[in-house]
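note to self — DONT lose this again. spent like an hour looking for the file last time. sequence + predicted structure for the chain T wanted, 242 res
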Amino acid sequence: MSLSRLVCATCLTLALAGPALTPAWGMDTPQPPQAGNFTLQEPAARLKLRLIPGNTLAAGYRSPFYQQNTATGAITLQTDGLQPSIQGQTAPATVLREGTAWYFQQTPADMSASLHIDTWPSDQRVIIGRIQSPHGPVAELVADGHHSQVTAIIHDGTSTRRIIAGTIYPDRHISYTISSRPSGTLQIVVNGTRNMLPMPVAATAPVMWFEAVAGQTGWHMPCHGDMARVTFTSLDVRHPAP
């Protein structure tokens, strides 16, 4: 085969394969969750929450809402469908909060995660990750089992924007990355689909942090059986140098 034909054949092969989709800003190989880098927020009783520090989690903490596989490092978060809403916020939810807070103008920020939806609640909707501020969520990802897709919800004060961020694999696996940059860029990648968005104006002032979540949305039947269960096989938060 001539060199020109070889080059053409190679180009055709690459064209058929399609463009390579990589995680946001070249994230490295997924890392097993490091529990010590997070604070756990879990239900304690009706209308109450319990905060578990990272050193306690790293020492092997377990509860009906949280457990870490000692062999693989995978972390399972579970809700309790009997837990009511707290101060008007949607509930129930079990949350792993980033250990430090930051201003998006001062530091790049990346959270990458791979997870499996073990149990869908009755409405087939589970919050799986978000950027949070003292005023509420800035951006959050909601897995929708009815439509096999992940919706990104961007909150900007009184307005809310929703986009389809990616699809859910048939085996219920989802990999995502949420990244912000001091330039005002917000990037969300879900199972290879990349979305570039401006950081909401309302997020320019408050401090923020990442959260990995197993949470329900909207109204739910208050019973123990109406729960969500999510297993994070990898979870990593980074603040790379600008």
